[in-house]
Each structure stands twice: as structure tokens, then as C-alpha cells.
Design a protein that fits this description.
It is built from three helices and six strands, in the order H-E-E-E-H-E-H-E-E. It is α+β, with helices and mostly antiparallel strands and 108 residues long. The protein has a single domain, classed as Aminopeptidase (3-Layer(aba) Sandwich), CATH 3.40.630.30. The longest helix has 15 residues. The chain starts with a helix and ends with a strand.
């Protein structure tokens, strides 16, 4: 996926997760007209499996709810099957896919 992360961080609301002063995760949201999109969510490989990603997802839900949104959306690469499985486990639904991306939503 071709993303200029510096531009994304500059132009959209972005939060980080820190551990001992080091960035271990991040979240970028887009507040659309009718829903909130998770533009990017990432956890450093050494810190995966410790609940940071789930925490960032809960934080995204909280931020969307604070702005009176009732739906979150995201897209992930079709080859990242572990991401799709995680999102399904967290209550997300697959709503579409193409050759490159799986599109998902969650009603909150």
C-alpha cells in the first residue's frame, strides 16, 4: 500500500502508544461525513501480542463515539490474513474486497 506516512501524520489526527519513551504503536483516523475511518494502525513487531493494537482499536471507537459517529471503517491488504482474523475477532465485519484490499466496518 502506497502511503506517505509523514503527510498522513501531518494532515490527520494521529496518536501514538509509547513504552519507556519509545513509540511502539500508532493510530491515524479520518472523520468522514458519515463514519470514522481508521486510516492507519500499526504496532511495532516486538510489541505485538501484548494488547496494544486492541487498545488502539478501543481508543478509535472512543474517539469516534465522542464525535457522535456510530460506524468505523478500515481497509487492510488481502495478504494480511492475520489482520482480517484479528478484526473479525474484535467484532468487525467484512463488507467488500478487491484484488488488493479487504474492506471492513464495525457498528459502535
Amino acid at each position: 500500500m502506497d502511503v506517505d506516512y509523514a503527510i498522513e501524520i501531518r494532515d490527520f489526527p494521529t496518536w501514538i502508544a509509547e513504552y519507556n519513551g519509545n513509540i511502539v504503536g500508532g493510530l491515524t483516523l479520518l472523520f468522514e461525513k458519515e463514519y470514522t475511518s481508521i486510516a492507519n494502525i500499526a504496532v511495532h513487531p516486538e510489541f505485538q501480542g501484548h494488547g496494544i493494537g486492541s487498545g488502539l482499536m478501543k481508543f478509535a471507537e472512543k474517539k469516534a463515539t465522542e464525535k457522535n459517529f456510530t460506524e468505523l471503517r478500515l481497509a487492510t491488504h488481502v495478504l494480511l490474513t492475520e489482520n482480517v482474523a484479528l478484526y473479525l475477532h474484535l467484532g468487525w465485519t467484512e463488507i467488500d474486497r478487491d484484488d488488493v484490499r479487504v474492506y471492513m466496518n464495525k457498528v459502535i
